[in-house]
Design brief:
0% strand, 70 residues, mainly alpha, flat
Length: 70
C-alpha cells in the first residue's frame, strides 16, 4: 500500500526544489561571469563592458529595425 503524501512531505519537497533552483541560478550566473572568487579578470571586465554597451545599443537597434520593418 502506498504511503500518504503529507504536508511535511510537501514542505520537504519544496525545500529540495528551492535548493535546486538556487544552485541552478548560481550556475547560470557563472556561465557569463565567474563570481565565486569576487575578483574580475580582464576577460570578465571586457564581458561586462560589452554587456553594458549592449544594454544601451540593443534597444536602439531594436527600435530602428522595428521602424524599418514596420
Amino acid at each position: 500500500m502506498a504511503q500518504k503524501f503529507t504536508f511535511a512531505d510537501a514542505k520537504k519537497r519544496i525545500k529540495e526544489l528551492e535548493n535546486q533552483v538556487e544552485a541552478a541560478t548560481v550556475k547560470a550566473g557563472n556561465v557569463i561571469l565567474d563570481t565565486s572568487d569576487n575578483v574580475f579578470t580582464s576577460k570578465e571586465l571586457n564581458k561586462i563592458k560589452f554587456l553594458e554597451l549592449w544594454s544601451l545599443l540593443g534597444p536602439i537597434i531594436g527600435i530602428v529595425i522595428g521602424l524599418i520593418v514596420g
